[in-house]
Design brief:
Arc Repressor Mutant, subunit A, 8 strands, 47% helix, 18% strand
Length: 260
């Protein structure tokens, strides 16, 4: 392991994940002593990791046997991965068509806490690239508050969930027009709820604009967002939203009709 790798490495995280990895279909329930033996750790150290994971919902203790099993949060993670993979497969041809029609890069994103993660990305015509597009890729994380997809995903959250996220967001300036305070962000999210369209006007980086709309599950829950990344031009943002909003919303409806 290089020096840089060792600096970035977290032994506590490694051990916590190792605890979870010890549970298998053949060994669904394990006690502290069994876990400590399999992990090569002391009972006290093992108990510390197990207690933390149980408090967070990743492990559950059986009151009768005192043994631990994987908790519901692990199941949630698995369903999130499966849903994202399925959604990406469903959306791919529609993203391709969107990029082909508009000439702009199209993205599919999901929310992970206060960030959005790009889970698919179709580049537009090369002459229309913004320099930031060369550094973005599938798996890239972008803060919700300064991205159109992020705002499309935040806007439709239940108020308690939104408040919780906003409490933990630090609205650092990223682009020349980043939203700098909570009141302004809340007002813009209200606009997104009313129109169904979110915009990013040089909030992530200078010269980059984006328009996004939400993707809903068949139950009507917002599960993802698609966007078009548009390099800066003298055209007003409202005109761009009017121009590209309908094709984005039509694409979103097509994807949503096939989503789980």
């Amino acid at each position: 392991m290089s020096h840089d790798d060792s600096v970035a490495f977290s032994q506590s995280l490694e051990r916590g994940l190792a605890v979870l990895g010890t549970f298998t279909p053949d060994r669904p329930a394990l006690g502290i002593s069994e876990l400590a033996q399999r992990l090569g750790l002391t009972r006290s150290t093992t108990h510390r990791y197990v207690a933390t994971l149980a408090r967070l919902g990743y492990l559950h203790q059986d009151e009768a046997t005192r043994k631990y099993r994987l908790g519901i949060r692990v199941l949630d993670l698995g369903f999130t991965v499966l849903s994202s993979l399925e959604l990406r497969e469903i959306a791919a041809p529609h993203l391709q068509r969107l990029a082909s029609i508009t000439g702009h890069t199209s993205n599919l994103a999901i929310r992970d806490d206060t960030d959005v993660i790009l889970i698919d990305r179709i580049r537009g015509r090369p002459c229309r690239y913004h320099h930031l597009e060369f550094s973005l890729h599938v798996g890239s994380r972008i803060p919700c508050y300064c991205s159109a997809t992020g705002k499309a995903l935040l806007a439709f959250l239940a108020q308690p969930d939104l408040d919780n996220l906003l409490d933990r967001m630090e609205l650092h300036p990223r682009g020349p027009r980043s939203i700098g305070n909570r009141t302004a962000l809340i007002a813009e999210l209200g606009q997104v709820r009313r129109t169904g369209i979110a915009v990013n006007d040089e909030e992530l980086d200078s010269g980059l604009r984006s328009i996004a709309v939400p993707i809903r599950s068949r139950a009507g829950v917002v599960v993802a967002a698609i966007n078009l990344a548009i390099p800066w031009s003298p055209v007003a943002m409202s005109e761009l939203a009017d121009q590209f909003g309908p094709v984005l919303q039509a694409t979103a409806r097509q994807i949503s009709s096939l989503a789980i």
